[in-house]
Specification:
This protein is of the alpha+beta class. The chain has 3 domains: about 70 residues, no CATH class; about 110 residues, no CATH class; about 70 residues, no CATH class. It contains 7 helices and 12 strands. Strands 3, 4, 5, 6, 7 and 8 form a 6-stranded antiparallel beta sheet that branches. Helix 1 crosses helix 3 and helix 4 packs across helix 5. It is elongated and about 65 Å long.
Length: about 260
């Protein structure tokens, strides 16, 4: 286990290198991207570490390191990743962020990662101008109860590409990328499906209210959410057998079955 004292000594000798690494991570967030480290540490807000005094910067870096150290402790697995991918559309592709006015690009490999909340993300080395490579990534989409989704509107590769997961790996378009540890991924799937069903309960409830009140919400995100929950709605309506169609949370969405 890495101790705080060892981390502090190491950082004292290499503070500038750590600062460059952290600036890549944080500036990406300031540019509208949320970066999660593989250990689960997450950074939000518009920070500019370059302007901080050296002592304050060291404190921030130490806290960051302790966050990494905490992430390495024995905790339940909440994510699973594919093997590293060395051929694919993200290789050398713009990462959709800038650092000190320099555009950032993905490097020569990347991997997909799923989280227990159903989020599908992509990670890889990122280079911004002359700054040494750091690690970064972005959200692709949230998986539905069928473990499928479409790339979100602001994904750097563009919206609409179909994604899905199964026991073999992540399928992006017509290409499947294998899991590094299939058992970890399989163990997460029930949790992902449960959360996706809970999300559909929410989406279908609001859709039923809009229908009852003759309201239309045609935003791309809402349409995508409703489309991903269509199978769930069909199952609920089919099982009603003339009775009120009720969601798992007890809400009546019969009005959606009459369309």
């Amino acid at each position: 286990m890495i101790t705080a004292a060892r981390v502090f000594r190491g950082l004292s000798a290499s503070i500038d290198a750590w600062a460059r690494f952290l600036r890549i991570e944080v500036d990406a967030i300031g540019s509208g991207r949320t970066i999660k480290h593989g250990t689960g540490c997450q950074y939000r807000g518009n920070f500019m570490l370059a302007s901080l005094p050296r002592a304050v910067l060291l404190t921030v870096i130490l806290a960051f390191s302790l966050c990494l150290n905490t992430g390495l402790a024995d905790t339940p697995t909440t994510n699973a990743r594919t093997i590293e991918i060395h051929e694919g559309p993200l290789i050398g592709h713009p990462a959709g962020m800038t650092m000190m006015n320099a555009p950032c690009f993905y490097g020569d490999h990347f991997h997909y990662e799923i989280h227990s909340d159903g989020e599908l993300r992509v990670y890889g080395p990122i280079t911004c101008g002359k700054v040494p490579s750091g690690a970064g990534g972005e959200q692709v989409c949230y998986l539905d109860p069928r473990l499928r989704c479409q790339a979100r509107q602001s994904f750097s590769l563009g919206a609409g590409t179909p994604y899905s997961i199964n026991e073999h790996g992540v399928k992006a378009g017509d290409k499947t990328y294998a899991w590094a540890n299939p058992q970890e991924a399989i163990a997460l799937m029930p949790s992902i499906q449960t959360r996706a069903k809970e999300k559909c309960n929410e989406v279908l409830f609001w859709q039923s209210l809009d229908t009852k009140n003759n309201r239309t919400n045609s935003s791309a995100e809402r349409v995508r959410e409703q489309e991903s929950c269509k199978l769930t709605l069909q199952q609920i309506c089919a099982s009603a057998h003339g009775r009120p169609a009720v969601l798992g949370n007890g809400k009546d969405v019969t009005v959606l079955c009459q369309r």
